[in-house]
Amino acid sequence: MESSPPLPRMLTEDVRQALRAAQDQVNALVLGKAHEVRLAFVAALSGGHLLIEDLPGLGKTTLAHALASSLGLGFQRVQFTSDLLPADVLGVSILDAGSREFTFHPGPVFTHVLLADEINRAPPRTQSALLEAMAEQQVTLDGQTHPLPDPFFVIATQNPVDLSGTFPLPDSQLDRFLLRLAMGYPDATAERELLRGTDRRHLIAQATPKLSQEQVRQLRQAVGQVHASDALVDYVQALLTRSRQHGGVRVGLSPRAGLALLRAAKAHALLLGREHVLPEDVQALFVGVAGHRLVPEAESSSGPALAKAILHSVPVD
């Protein structure tokens, strides 16, 4: 396993060590997926949400569990099914017979890390129940607004939309996810170690928190302090502009997508031990940030493929 790079001076030594330990633990649990693990940490430190999409059995839930176990935050898992109701996620107000008043009983969304497992197996009405929570970090029910814990982070897994029993996520919900990534098959070495090693579920059960709530908040603040030069912002803006002009794209990237890309790039730089963003940070994240936000003109086209083409068409000055 490669050693982690030194982290920026803006972080205290205990936070640096804790973050390195957290990354090392997740990499030990999710074998051969260092790039995907780094992207998962980028989402967590950016204050965004993570969508993991791939075929069943490729480690989506393992990555989600490993990340949540290492962050040292409150954790809830919801298995999304076709009969899941919004109240099963958000909570419900129940009439108290004694006081004759409604008492709110919070649902599993009231946690720091919510694992929405197989989110696209639930109907659209239940999927959309998470929109306000993901965008505003609050839930409004029966005219009352209930704040969610800080930090709040959604890790959602989904199966490809062409599998039976799935409901595609609407564009408005996809836009709430900072990053979408796919796991892919492990390489031969990692797969052999998986086959010969201890069951991942047992190892995850033994995983210990490496970061505290306060340290996660410090890391998120440090991401905001990473420097992005004017030239780097120009590069991000050129990518946004090209996405709106590129052939085969019906709806390009919004300014909000640009802000998400820039913040994710800052988190990526932080994880690589830098206090400034390079074009390489943007390039490493562009497909993950843009692929699910682009709307192709043809159904046969895919957002990630268009994102790759856009990335290759914009030079770095």
Fold and architecture overview:
This protein has helices at 13-29, 34-46, 60-71, 86-90, 124-127, 131-136, 171-174, 188-196, 200-206, 213-225, 230-245, 255-271, 279-290, 303-313; strands at 50-53, 75-79, 91-96, 101-106, 113-117, 138-141, 144-147, 153-158, 179-181, 249-251, 295-296. It is an alpha/beta fold and 317 residues long. It has 2 domains: 1-223, P-loop containing nucleotide triphosphate hydrolases (Rossmann fold), CATH 3.40.50.300; 226-317, Orthogonal Bundle (Helicase, Ruva Protein, domain 3), CATH 1.10.8.80. A 5-stranded parallel sheet has the order 2-5-8-1-9. A two-stranded antiparallel sheet has the order 3-4. α3 (60-71) packs parallel to α9 (200-206). The model has no long low-confidence stretch (mean pLDDT 88).
* Structural domain count: 2
CATH class descriptor of the largest domain: Alpha Beta
Number of helices: 14
**What structural class is derived from the secondary structure elements?**
alpha/beta
Could you say what the CATH architecture of the largest domain is?
3-Layer(aba) Sandwich
Strand neighbour order, sheet with most strands: 2-5-8-1-9
In angstroms, what is the radius of gyration?
A: 20 Å
The main sheet comes to:
5 strands, parallel
Kindly, what is the distance between the CA atoms of the first and last residues, rounded to a whole number of angstroms?
Answer: 34 Å
Stretches with pLDDT under 50, minimum 5 residues: none
Shape: globular
Q: What name goes with the CATH superfamily of the largest domain?
A: P-loop containing nucleotide triphosphate hydrolases
The CATH topology annotation of the largest domain reads as Rossmann fold
Residue fraction in strands? 15-25%
Question: What is the helix/strand order?
Answer: HHEHEHEEEHHEEEHEHHHHEHHEH
The number of strands is 11
